[in-house]
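Researcher: Next sequence.
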Amino acid sequence: MNTKRQPAKPRGRRPAVENFDVREHLLDTATRLFSERGIAATTVAQIATAAGVTSALVHYYFTNRETLLDAIVEERLAPAVGFVWGATGGDSDDDPFVMVGEFVTRLFDVTGRMPWLPPLWLREVVNEGGMLRDRMITRIPFDNIKRFGARIKEAQQAGDVNPELDALLMFNSIIALVMLPQAAATLWQSIRGFAPIERDTLKRHVAALLLGGMKTPATAPRAPRKTARRTSTRSR
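Model: Next structure:
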């Protein structure tokens, strides 16, 4: 008997009929609609229609909206947060440049597999009054964020990182640079003359901006200094 566990199927895709998991399908559909329309503007009937089932079946798996929101936090958002923070071990000897680079890489990884995450996060977690805010506030690893900032601060004191940066604001900067452009991608793309935001381009841009900005002024390239031209006056 083969006791090896089969690799988990990627979420967000409808599996083959013989392996079809109705609950997972409903959770994926609800998460996508919530990210596109907002939780308050999405009804159970809309979720059922998009999933190709009846409203009664939605209620069978998720008794009410609160149960559904709890499931999204437990089974979608919390694992995503845990994966991203797996890039930092909290070791004070971690190279801050490697630490930030891995954090960015994992954010792009998880948002690539979960394209609904940036708009849902900004709309329902970050936004004042977001319907997932209270549920997620206890899931955010604030101790990890403090250690993250402390490691940046240590590197600044050692002269390895730009002292003009705010150590704790580095976390907010990373989240904003990665999440906001992806959340606004549809709007950006709809504006005439603006090219679509390519993920690879955005990733290179964010990494260059962050890692370049972390360099100390002594190691960062300097622009050539302009010298003022002297004018001479002749006495008459």
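Model: Residues 72-214 form a domain with the Tetracycline Repressor; domain 2 fold (CATH 1.10.357.10). The two ends are 108 Å apart (CA to CA).
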